[in-house]
Structure formats: C-alpha cells, structure tokens
Specification:
The protein is mostly helical. Helix content is about 45%, strand content about 0%. It has three helices and no strands. α1 packs across α3.
C-alpha cells in the first residue's frame, strides 16, 4: 500500500470531509485510496467494493467520504 493511501485512509471522517469541502482533497483521490486499501485486505472483510465513485446525496454530512459497513 502506498504512503499516499496510508495518509489518506488515516484521516478521520471529519478531517476528510473538511478537506473535501475546502478543495484540498479530491473525492476521486480519496475513493481510489480506499479501493486500494480494500484490495489489499487479507481478511476478506469486503464482499463488495464500488467500481466508480457513487453519487453523494445533496446535503450529506459525509460529502464524498467513503463509507464501509
């Protein structure tokens, strides 16, 4: 896993949201970092990962922050 991926996936949801809001961070960049993290998962914890960036609902408090359930 790259250092950039580690740095981006190490952000709290609040910090990632703030950086997305200010334009300091691109939603696509964050999405792809989390896809890289899921691909490197050795526990098989992810049963499905989106291929493309899903649309963010208007007014969403996450505003482009990836979510794993």
């Amino acid at each position: 896993m790259s250092r950039q991926t580690q740095a981006l996936t190490g952000l709290s949801a609040l910090e990632a949201s703030r950086r997305l809001e200010t334009g300091e961070l691109d939603a696509g960049e964050l999405f792809h970092a989390y896809r890289e993290l899921a691909a490197a998962d050795e526990l098989n914890a992810f049963t499905w990962v989106a291929d493309d960036i899903p649309p963010s609902p208007a007014g969403s408090p996450l505003g482009g922050v990836p979510l794993a359930v």
